[in-house]
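Predict the 3D structure for this chain.
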Amino acid sequence: MSITAITERIGAIQSAIQELSTPAATSTAAATAAPATTFASGAGAADFGTVLNALSGAAPGGTTGGVTGSDIVAQAKTYLGVPYVFGGEDETGMDCSGLVQRVLADLGIDAPRVVQDQADIGVEVPSLDQAQPGDLIVTKGEGHIVIYAGDGKIIHAPRPGKDVQLVDNYLSPDEISTIRRVATAAEPAALLPGAVVPAAAAAPASTITQAELLTAMQSLFATQQTGLSSSLGLLTGALS
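Done. Predicted structure below.
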């Protein structure tokens, strides 16, 4: 086979590949504009990763980015059992504000050392019934600070002779000076109190059924059938 013939076949193959990719590229904006759990008529040309993310409820890229309140709670729980030490701020011992500073520092959030200064960070939450996991609750007089863990629980380093504990919240609204939200990312909707999540979005990726995958793939390629047929014809002719 001559070099000219080889070049012509390569050119035909490249043209076919370009034709295959063009329909998906032209509909990307429309596909990403639709809610993750909604398969609109124009979603057929969406990339397969977007379809799978929509089925599993994952955000594009797989992460919300930043630090959520749940991240703060999870990190605080790693210090459960650490003894109370006044002025302490590590796993050998810590006081209430030392715990808060250490947890936030572990997650890349710079926080001051003492309760009086921690009472001014983040954004104020209007009331206890609006508190979310990861919020900081400061007592009247700013003598103590705790981390709200959700479900009526708090994590704190109470006093000498005790250790870092997860306990029922004992603070009433009139005992609270301020509640501060320091999370740098919004909580996924599925984790917010009272959230109602569509079943398809709530299901983990590992539970996606074959039928759901088939439906997604049919939706993905439905609008590309004409272009795909002609492109495959070009490929077949080029390779014959």
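The CA atoms of residues 97 and 115 lie 6 Å apart.
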